[in-house]
Write a structure and sequence with these properties.
This protein folds into two domains: 2-110; 119-358, PPM-type phosphatase domain (Phosphatase 2c, domain 1, 4-Layer Sandwich). It contains eleven helices and eleven strands. The protein has helices spanning 2-6, 9-23, 31-41, 47-68, 73-118, 169-189, 193-211, 213-218, 294-297, 309-322, 329-344, and strands at residues 125-126, 129-136, 147-154, 157-165, 221-228, 234-240, 246-248, 254-256, 279-282, 288-292, 352-358. The strands form two sheets. It has a six-stranded antiparallel sheet.
């Protein structure tokens, strides 16, 4: 919407020039303002649009000069030539911007392909558990982000991790691969969540040691590691410095699953020793566990107010139910991503990785 309104700016500049010329004495010229119109059009309009604005500005200037009786060499021909030169300059600026945008789009496309290769979507269903995942890259980034999610069926139940690696680019991808590889191996082998988290910690420390430098000292991953009971009646959670997940019950009520004890992100064990508290929460029929990275929780509106998923999700799900479509995990994530976009005015400020895990309700006849 804002972009569409912005495209009217060059025409508004011309209108302002006409008004200025009509309300001021004849020795005051609106030519400088008319010359600004093609320049204003350069980043906003297409090539044809810029040429049209330039031609319109020249025509308006000629009519106004004839109206004032001042269409001579200085007030007429010279200004017309200047308007023509400014229009050509605006076209060159537009072509330069288009080339840069095309390169950025290609870089983002390559990053998206690489992201999908590193971070494939989980299966839509594991047993009775319904699963949906979404990854939304930041619009101002052409680099591969460090947000991650993984879901794996193991001998110990379905295990899940959602995390956010510090940094961007190849360094972050290396850490993401280390986290995912360690999780996929240890999720099957570790008897409990503390053992799984310890394996992730060791893998991240090894990766930091290989990379050395600042990454060895400051590399870390915020992570949420969860495990579902075999009968899906409960979910056990270890939170290592990550935004807590939200549990939506069958009636659409939201509960934030806050950790009972704060713990630092993975990769920071060199700074001290912390316990690994495991919090167990009921996971009743019809409930949906929604996990996300800080691209959601730190999304801000124009006033700097942070987005609160626990407040917005019940409203979104209730609205969806009112129109007759019970929200599936994929629909919940779609609604959440759209709502975050509305909150920020369409600006995607940071990568967003989201995961929704749903336990179907008990059928009425069961």
């Amino acid at each position: 919407m804002r972009q569409r309104r912005a495209k009217w700016i060059p025409l508004g500049v011309i209108v302002l020039g006409v008004v200025l010329d009509l309300v001021t004495p004849t020795d005051v010229t609106s030519a400088p303002l008319l010359m600004a119109a093609p320049v204003a059009a350069a980043p906003l309009l297409s090539l044809r649009g810029i040429v049209a604005i330039g031609a319109l500005a020249m025509a308006v200037h000629a009519v106004l000069a004839w109206h004032d009786g001042s269409f001579g060499w200085q007030r007429g021909v010279a200004n017309q030539l200047t308007l023509l030169a400014v229009t050509v300059l605006a076209v060159l600026i537009n072509r330069s911007l288009e080339g840069r945008d095309a390169r950025t789009r290609r870089a983002r496309h390559i990053a998206a392909v690489a992201q999908s290769a590193v971070l494939p979507r989980p299966p839509s269903r594991l047993g009775e558990l319904r699963i949906a995942a979404r990854y939304v890259p930041a619009e101002n980034e052409a680099m591969i982000g460090g947000d991650l999610y993984v879901v794996q069926d193991t001998p110990h139940g379905v295990r899940v991790m959602v995390g956010d690696v510090r940094g961007k680019g190849l360094g972050a991808v290396s850490a993401v691969c280390a986290d995912l590889g360690a999780f996929r191996y240890a999720a099957d082998e570790a008897e409990d969540l503390p053992g799984l988290v310890a394996a992730l910690e060791r893998a991240l420390l090894r990766e930091g040691g290989r990379r050395g430098g600042q990454e060895q000292e400051e590399g870390f991953t915020t992570a949420l590691v969860a495990e579902f009971a075999d009968d899906l009646s409960a979910v056990r959670v270890v939170n290592r410095g990550h935004p807590p997940p939200v549990l939506l019950d069958a009636q659409g009520r939201a509960t934030v699953l806050e950790p009972s004890e704060e713990a630092p992100p993975l990769g920071m064990s060199g700074l001290g020793t912390w316990s690994c508290p495991v919090d167990t929460f009921p996971f009743p029929p019809g409930a949906t566990l929604i996990c996300y990275t800080d691209g959601v929780t730190e999304a801000r509106d124009e006033s700097g107010v942070f987005y609160d998923a626990s407040v917005r999700l019940p409203f979104l799900v209730h609205h969806r139910a009112l129109v007759g479509y019970p929200a599936s995990p994929a629909q919940i994530l779609h609604l959440l991503i759209e709502d975050v976009g509305h909150h920020t005015g369409g600006r995607i400020q940071d990568d967003q990785a989201l995961l929704a895990l749903h336990r179907p309700p008990v059928p009425p006849y069961a």
